[in-house]
């Protein structure tokens, strides 16, 4: 019972953060704002949800050898997400800067102008 409550404390904010990332990717207008909305809260939300799931699985009365393998997979999932999401965001930001995908001319400031073509 107590592990259910603790896991819920992690899973609900994680689910809210993943949902807010989805809403942000639809509502934001510029490419960089969408990249930020997709990567930052989505990664944090995933980590929170996986931690809540691990707590729930460990607290189960049927916790055994097979569930230990599931926890290992969840840990690998978090490690993979933490390694790839920042790199993906950086690459998307660089490509959008090189291609000039920031939006209209009125949305640009001096530091956000596209890089010169080489």
UniProtKB/TrEMBL annotation:
Pfam families: PhaG_MnhG_YufB (PF03334). InterPro entries: PhaG_MnhG_YufB (IPR005133). The chain crosses the membrane at residues 6-26, 38-59, 71-89. The keyword Transmembrane helix applies. The keyword Transmembrane applies. Keywords: Membrane, Transmembrane, Transmembrane helix. GO terms for molecular function: sodium:proton antiporter activity. Belongs to the CPA3 antiporters (TC 2.A.63) subunit G family. This is Monovalent cation/H+ antiporter subunit G. It comes from Corynebacterium lipophiloflavum (strain ATCC 700352 / DSM 44291 / CCUG 37336 / JCM 10383 / DMMZ 1944). The lineage of its organism: Bacteria, Bacillati, Actinomycetota, Actinomycetes, Mycobacteriales.
């Amino acid at each position: 019972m107590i592990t259910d409550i603790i896991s819920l404390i992690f899973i609900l904010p994680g689910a809210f953060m993943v949902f807010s990332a989805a809403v942000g990717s639809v509502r934001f207008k510029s490419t960089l704002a969408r990249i930020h909305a997709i990567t930052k809260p989505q990664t944090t939300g995933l980590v929170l949800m996986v931690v809540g799931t691990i707590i729930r699985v460990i607290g189960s009365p049927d916790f055994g050898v097979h569930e230990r393998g599931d926890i290992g997979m969840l840990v690998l999932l978090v490690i993979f997400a933490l390694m790839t999401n920042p790199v993906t965001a950086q690459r998307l930001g660089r490509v959008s800067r090189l291609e000039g995908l920031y939006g209209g001319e009125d949305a640009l400031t001096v530091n956000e102008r596209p890089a010169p073509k080489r």
